[in-house]
């Protein structure tokens, strides 16, 4: 269960400035009802660029309502140039914090404010060929990149918390992680090799014995048979002349074991059955 501050609960239970505004100076919209969250922000702006009134309509969770409500209080009476500098962090902090999984609600408030300001000034930030990187939640690449930079979103979980991207079908997971690495200049994690199954270990050991050991032993009338593999221990059986040779112990340690260590692992130990 998420913990909410008293201020979040207050703005959720008693939201301020709710409703549609008649003849607004600017309207900002963000989100999509079909994706789960949507916000419309209305602004009344005077000739001096002061926001004299703000109202909102939102479709979303309690955190979305609280974020929208507190945002209107934060911007009323302020100059439009000043409020344009607000960040989603400012909204979350004004609420006394939000659960990590609900930070996208503060981002939604910031997005609606930016859209309203662009609507008022007529200056639209156009992004050429701006693809939708997460189709489930209609998240565009430029928006995602902006959030990654502003909030240092260096894990997929953080990206989901702030933007909801990749919280649905996750078909965009690889694209989003690649964008994250490129934006923050992160190295791609090295793939760790999966441990071999016992069958794979036996096949690999047997191949090395056949290719590097058996032929040498056969030159002196001997041979070797693989019996089993248990972890780093290889159990073998010497055959032919090697079986009764007084130097069989040295052959196992100095030749067979060292050969396997060279081609497999330094931890390999060879034991005769």
Q: What is the approximate shape?
A: rod-shaped
Order of helices and strands: HEEEHHHHEEHHHHEEHHE
Give average pLDDT, whole number: 90
Helical percentage: 40-55%
What is the total number of structural domains?
2
Largest sheet: 3 strands, antiparallel
* Structure classification: alpha+beta
Query: In CATH terms, what is the architecture of the largest domain?
Result: Alpha-Beta Complex
Looking at the structure, the CATH topology of the largest domain is Sufe protein. Chain: A
At the first level of CATH, the class of the largest domain is Alpha Beta
Based on the model shown, name its key terms.
single chain, 273 residues, alpha+beta, Sufe protein. Chain: A, GMP Synthetase, Chain A, domain 3, 2 domains, rod-shaped
Summarize the structure.
This protein has helices at 6-13, 62-75, 80-83, 88-94, 103-121, 141-151, 156-163, 173-184, 198-218, 241-244, 248-263; strands at residues 26-32, 37-45, 51-59, 132-134, 139-140, 222-230, 233-240, 269-272. It is an alpha+beta fold. The strands form three sheets. It has a three-stranded antiparallel β-sheet with strand order 1-2-3. A three-stranded mixed β-sheet has the order 6-7-8.
Characterization of this structure:
The protein is an alpha+beta fold and 273 residues long. It has two domains: 6-184, Sufe protein. Chain: A (Alpha-Beta Complex), CATH 3.90.1010; 198-272, 2-Layer Sandwich (GMP Synthetase, Chain A, domain 3). Helix content is 45%, strand content 19%. It has eleven helices and eight strands. It has a three-stranded antiparallel beta sheet with strand order 1-2-3. A hairpin with a 4-residue loop joins strand 4 (132-134) and strand 5. The longest helix has 21 residues, at 198-218. The model has no long low-confidence stretch (mean pLDDT 90).
């Amino acid at each position: 269960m998420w913990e909410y501050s008293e201020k979040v609960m207050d703005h959720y239970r008693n939201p301020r400035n709710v409703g549609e505004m008649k003849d607004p100076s600017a309207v900002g919209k963000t989100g999509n009802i079909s994706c789960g969250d949507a916000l419309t922000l209305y602004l009344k702006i005077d000739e001096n660029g002061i926001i004299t009134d703000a109202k909102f309509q939102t479709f979303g969770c309690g955190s979305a309502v609280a974020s929208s409500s507190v945002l209107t209080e934060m911007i009323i009476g302020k100059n439009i140039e000043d409020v344009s500098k607000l960040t989603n962090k400012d909204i979350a902090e004004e609420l006394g914090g939000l659960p990590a999984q609900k930070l996208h609600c503060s981002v939604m408030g910031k997005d609606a404010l930016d859209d309203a300001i662009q609507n008022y000034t007529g200056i639209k930030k156009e992004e050429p060929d701006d693809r939708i990187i997460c189709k489930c939640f209609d998240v565009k690449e430029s928006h995602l990149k902006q959030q990654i930079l502003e909030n240092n979103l260096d894990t997929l979980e953080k990206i989901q918390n702030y933007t909801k991207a990749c919280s649905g079908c996750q078909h965009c997971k690889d694209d989003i992680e690649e964008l994250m690495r490129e934006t923050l200049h992160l190295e791609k994690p090295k793939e760790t090799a999966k441990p071999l199954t016992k069958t794979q270990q036996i096949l690999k050991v047997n191949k090395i014995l056949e290719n590097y050991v058996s032929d040498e032993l056969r030159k002196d009338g001997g041979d070797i048979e693989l019996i089993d593999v248990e972890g780093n221990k290889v159990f073998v059986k010497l055959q032919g002349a090697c079986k009764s040779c007084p130097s069989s112990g040295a052959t196992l340690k100095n030749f067979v074991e060292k050969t396997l260590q060279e081609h497999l692992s330094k931890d390999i130990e060879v034991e005769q059955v």
